[in-house]
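Honest question from a wet-lab person: if I give you the sequences of every part of a complex, can you actually get the arrangement of the whole thing, not just the pieces? Trying it with mine:
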Amino acid sequence: MPMNRPIWTDEPWKPLPELTGVVKADVCVVGLGGSGLTAVEEASMLGATVVGVDAGEVGGRAAGANGGFLLGGLADFFHRLVTRIGLSNAATIYRCTLEEIHRLALEFPNQVRTTGSLRIAATPEEVTDCHAHLAALQSAGFDALRYAGAEGEGLYLPMDAVYQPRRCVQEHAAHLTERGIALHEDSPVVSLSPGRVVTRRGEVHCRTIVAAVDGGLEDLFPELRSRVRTARLQMLATAPAREVYFPRPVYYRHGHEYWQQLRSGEIALGGFRDVGGEGEWTSSGEPGGAVQQLLEDFLRTHLRVTAPITHRWAASVAYTADRLPVLEEVRERIIATGAYSGTGNITGRLCGRAAARIACQVRSGWAELLRQARTFPHSPNLN
Ligand SMILES: Cc1cc2nc3c(=O)[nH]c(=O)nc-3n(C[C@H](O)[C@H](O)[C@H](O)COP(=O)(O)OP(=O)(O)OC[C@H]3O[C@@H](n4cnc5c(N)ncnc54)[C@H](O)[C@@H]3O)c2cc1C
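Yes, you can. This is the full assembly:
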């Protein structure tokens, strides 16, 4: 079995050229995952000339190696977000993320399935928490239902979806290059300074830089180290598992474990970062430690899947203490976005778009919303 190969990578991909020589652009986007590509698209739509660079492949890190869940909200469940950032901020954020799921489904209809999702409780106490979660969503006017079924007890969120993350990102990059936008793979940035991005064999001279990097954000910007910490998330996948049927993706034990069954029957399962201990706070994107065994045990005993394991992988994501993403001008004319605390497929797109708007000096409602959330009176007490 190839190690560190996500189940999503089985399609061939024609590499994009490395950046060589000196090029000029209004905006240079560093990082071509889902967030960076959305930034490239938005800056270009706003009339800027854009160059995008990535150290490896488009979607070669978390953006193409994740669980494929498209969930409403941020990393914290809605009811907790309400207590942290207030009902109005939490509800507006939630609405924006649902709209973004819808937008993604319209833009990539072959990659997105609007299945809804299940949050399933692991303990009786968590069932109580699911009730609070449900009550908060319903009282804010969002669709959510109590659920009890084969997967367990919890709630059903009908607006959520799943997608094929790697193909979606690749399709996105292909659309952009077809429109004549220069995207470069295999072009690691070795230095970033206002107006200048230096890669191994090239340079971009630009007005503004957008850095859209999730895992390792604090390595690119050491000034963020006190607020941002990178961890590894691990997954495995199986051959088609005809012995089980999961029509909807499942979020279990407060979202620590998560799995979905693909249309062709394979199970993709992730989790146990918290149980894996201090060793999971690493910038290594290689699977390992106790987590792979924990996933395998859970697959066999809890999910009762007998199909062979075909893929194991890991990738890096970054966390913040308040679980609100980073979206800010970290250095003069350098806008950084990342640290989505484990759920960046949708938030990353919203932040990437907002970063591009800031770079182009255009108002961003999403950026304002995050600013308000961060300064909400309860925020300083976050842990
Ligand atoms: C196993 C796993 C499961 C997950 N499951 C889910 C899920 O189900 N739902 C969900 O919403 N989120 C999930 N996430 C989180 C989600 O995948 C990420 O938050 C999101 O994909 C981040 O995308 P991004 O484009 O911001 O960053 P990344 O995917 O990290 O992309 C950043 C890019 O920047 C490039 N880069 C970094 N440094 C440099 C440099 N110096 N020079 C040039 N380029 C550089 C990298 O090569 C990379 O391609 C999961 C993550 C993992 C790892």
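Two things worth pointing out. The chain has two domains: 15-65+165-227+322-381, 115-160+229-320. Residues 114 and 161 are 4 Å apart (CA to CA).
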